Amino acid sequence: MAWGWQWDAEAVIATYHILPSHLAVGAFWITYFMERKAYQENDMDMLEFLKKYSLLVLIFCFVTGSLTGAGIWYAATIISPRVISGLIHNYVWGWATEWVFFLIEIVTIYTYYYTFKKISPKAHMRIGLIYAISAWLSMVIITGILGFMLTPGKWSQTGGFFDGFFNPSYWPQLFVRTAFMFVVGGTYAAIVASFIKNPHVKEKAMKVAAKWGMGGLVIGGLFTIWYFFKIPGQSRAIIFNDLTFTQTMFKIAIVSGVLLFVYFVIWCLKRSRTAIPIIAIIAMLILFVGICAGETIREMARRPYLIPNYMLSNQMIDHDMKAKGIKSEVAKFDREGVLKNYYFAPNSVKKIDQTNYMAAGRILTKLECISCHTVARDGFFSIPKLMVKFGATSPEDICDFLDSLGVYDYMPPFVGTETEKRTMAAYIASLVNPDMKADPAWVLGSK
Ligand code: HEC
To answer: Is there an atom of ligand 1 within 6 Å of 429 CB?
Structure first.
């Protein structure tokens, strides 16, 4: 696979996780208002629909949502152990608080489902509301940590929990997610409604789903604009100027949103009685594509960092942080060498010589480039392919390219000594052309 299985797995798991996680948060606001209306109008058929809907939410969110939630931790820890460690050191109490709300969610959703029509309507609706509020509060917390990874704000100086939590992109992102959770909830409700036989319930449920979905799309769209104003100028440049890839993703996200809106208008509002499941499922797929595109953009926006002004994408710390007594590693690595100092470098390459310089180059390339590229000859972001396209194929030209890495908005500068840079150039040249052998004397710096 193009990025190596861990990256693909992480991207697929994380994107998929958005569906159950946002549904878990959005669904019960819709359910709460529908249930209240059903009791007001004494509409028992509608209650039947709600019971089915909440069971399907329960199964979908609490089986696939929990599995992928744990999966994200697993995959992310393999890919970026140091950033996960950094996040845990700062936000372990944030996650602990989030998990308290998860617990409340789990207890209330089961209670809600199994007490349908068995307790007073008022008490039942209250359980639904407790679920809706605690699910949303779990989003309130996780958004702080997600936003921190793009705009850590004052945290970079103070290291304070709330300085990073209530960061510059916190509020817009919270509102964007809150609005889009209604879109996920509405789209899912329309799928469940499309299976209903009773035309009266079907029509009513479809219309409610459409209204929440459309409202979420419009409001979410507006908050997204605010969000783009709040992220750093460099991130906007990466998204809208530097990379055609993110521009394409942006277009895909817009087109998915428009298609979904048209679906809500035509299939859920106008033709609600004749709506069929297959169309509703296709709408969910369109939503999924839109989410993939949106989340890809958000991820690309924090390049070349994992935590801006702190840790680069290659997991090296590139800023001093007095408040926490942390010193930039990059400065030291440039002086003394990465391989000699880096925790993850094997002992066999701690000292570079005639026998191991290609191995050293391979390990350096993996340390510094593999978080975004592959060393395979083909596929997305293949280093040898990009080098050929760029026109650098000899070790010397590749070395010059590595010198200029820092001018790209989205790539970290090369980190390491001159000799290390040459070992990397020698290794990458051998990927471009296996017959290309660098001169060991040039690599080891004696020429
Ligand atoms: C933080 C992510 C990231 C890291 C780390 C990174 N790159 Fe890139 N690199 C990118 C992106 C994104 C592109 C743009 C790809 C495109 O245009 O299709 C790119 C483009 C390139 C290109 C093509 C440049 C051009 O102008 O056409 C080369 C060559 C390249 N990278 C090599 C490397 C090497 C070697 C390393 C390690 C020293 C590295 N990159 C590290 C993200 C990264």
So the answer is: no
Residue type at 375 in one-letter notation: V
What's the gap between Cα 317 and its chain centre?
Answer: 21
Task: Name residues whose C-beta falls within 8 Å of residue 18's C-beta, 6 or more positions apart in sequence.
Answer: 184, 291, 295
pLDDT at 447: 53
* Residue 152: how many other CB atoms lie within 10 Å: 24
What would the two tokens of residue 204 be?
């009513």
Which residue CA neighbors atom 27 of ligand 1 most closely? 390
Which residues form the domain of 414?
329-443
CATH number at residue 425: 1.10.760
User: How many domains, the chain?
Assistant: 2
Contact (Cβ atoms closer than 8 angstroms) between residue 426 and residue 443:
yes
427 and 336, same domain (yes or no): yes
Closest residue to atom 26 of ligand 1, CA basis: 390
267 and 373 in a common domain: no
Q: Is 420 exposed, middle or buried (0-12, 13-18, 19+ CB in 10 A)?
A: buried
259 and 351, same domain (yes or no):
no
pLDDT, tens digit (0-9, with 9 covering 90-100), for 180-189? 999 999 999 9
CA distance 208 to 126: 20
